[in-house]
Write a structure and sequence with these properties.
Length: 98
């Protein structure tokens, strides 16, 4: 369930920002390590889940930064009229650069 918690719940339901996503991955990694030390889960399982938690601490914040960069770039892109653009594509006319 760790993958669903970090990869789905924290991103789509909590809508966590970069800081919280980083903290969730870090805290989850510490939790699975502690559970292994207490004998609640096997060490192999803890190692696999700790690696997953480390990925969760790194990947979603990177994806969030990428989404922000793409959004800023999209705001600079000129508006295109779909009817005109379709005609250019169908006739092989290069799109004008604005």
């Amino acid at each position: 369930m760790l993958s669903e918690f970090l990869g789905y719940f924290m991103i789509r339901k909590v809508m966590a920002g970069q800081g919280l996503l980083l903290a969730a991955g870090t805290v989850t990694k510490k939790l699975v390590t502690w559970l292994a030390e207490q004998g609640v889960i096997e060490r192999e399982m803890a190692a696999a889940q700790a690696a997953r938690a480390a990925d969760a601490a790194r990947d979603p914040p990177n994806a969030d930064r990428l989404a922000e960069a793409l959004h800023r770039l999209s705001l600079k892109t000129p508006h295109r009229d779909p009817d005109t653009t379709d005609r250019w594509v169908e006739e092989g006319i290069p799109l004008p650069i604005s």
